[in-house]
């Protein structure tokens, strides 16, 4: 303790660390008392959040506005693509992220419109109304009033149903993430929430004097500082607070870091235990000085560690509950072995992102089309038994023919998709049993509420990927739907 070279330990920083990570409840109570506002669970990082955005096109229509509502209810970030912002505000409210664009004008599908999207739900459609007109709120149309002299109002089916859909698909393909990845942290999109999730956890907690921090700089996270071996120390790290709920990374192979380092060897820890000093699952990775690299970390290669010692009897990491993440530069590897690339002093590690990789491919583009798109001109069709849209396809500018071409543009794009062909849409209350078929033969009706719910559910179901199907409602009401089972018998498009 009398060693002249012994550096001064910082009690204040030690207490700051304990307070930030809520290690001692009393310290947090005192801090809250001084600051004058208690923290609640709303302030806790949420591992169940969706980082990417669901872009809803046709967001003010009968199905689209319901897709927006249900997506928000299920925790998605939603962006509504609209042509008339005042109309959109009156329908969707003031708290929705609105962007003005027109799918028939590809130059309007700008990087701002498409930024951060993880999926697209397209509910656009050409405007059809009775020849004799309709009310301002389209009451006749939405109430399902039958009319036998319909007309197209506004843009043509070719522009909306085909070229517009094709434009949106092509724009989305440039911005959608890789289909089998899940973004956990995207540091290229800095935010206060993102920064507040991470705090320094250095060897000051063990009596050392190393110091580090994490800053959002130039659309990256910069983990930097000075690591010292004085006072028997030798590590610097940054760690997230515990996420509540935790991240569920089941079905993925591992996590992938996009980093630029200084040539040293770093560690990442994933924790499934909310304890301050519990077991962490660790992986060491080397960096290349001043070079961006991708580091893939399979869950199977994570090493269970407690205070730098391997825990021999620990189970494999529980991927369904990843509570926190930690990045570290340490003098030590495991069980007393030294880090062969460790150098005391200043260090820097930049990060662009942390993602889960190797997951199941899910749909990224949901297209609401229409039953009957393959029927115009089909041999053997009895038009007297077909819905009005099939009978009047030519009169309505080939509306179903162009919808089919819009579908084809999506199938050919390489983007994972679900194409939903609802039968006659109604404003009835949803909650009916749903009937899915393929082959474009069924007739019936279905509530717009149920179609909207189907769109949102399809985003989470692997069996819904790259399939086209028709849907109608049965007569009976159901309390719940087994969505996985509903999609289980569908055959993928060839």
UniProtKB/TrEMBL annotation:
<feature type="domain" description="NAD(P)-binding">
    <location>
        <begin position="58"/>
        <end position="133"/>
    </location>
</feature>
<protein>
    <submittedName>
        <fullName>NADH:ubiquinone oxidoreductase complex I intermediate-associated protein 30</fullName>
    </submittedName>
</protein>
<feature type="domain" description="NADH:ubiquinone oxidoreductase intermediate-associated protein 30">
    <location>
        <begin position="185"/>
        <end position="350"/>
    </location>
</feature>
<keyword id="KW-0830">Ubiquinone</keyword>
<dbReference type="InterPro" id="IPR008979">
    <property type="entry name" value="Galactose-bd-like_sf"/>
</dbReference>
<dbReference type="InterPro" id="IPR016040">
    <property type="entry name" value="NAD(P)-bd_dom"/>
</dbReference>
<dbReference type="Pfam" id="PF13460">
    <property type="entry name" value="NAD_binding_10"/>
</dbReference>
<dbReference type="InterPro" id="IPR036291">
    <property type="entry name" value="NAD(P)-bd_dom_sf"/>
</dbReference>
<dbReference type="Pfam" id="PF08547">
    <property type="entry name" value="CIA30"/>
</dbReference>
<dbReference type="InterPro" id="IPR013857">
    <property type="entry name" value="NADH-UbQ_OxRdtase-assoc_prot30"/>
</dbReference>
<feature type="domain" description="NAD(P)-binding">
    <location>
        <begin position="356"/>
        <end position="460"/>
    </location>
</feature>
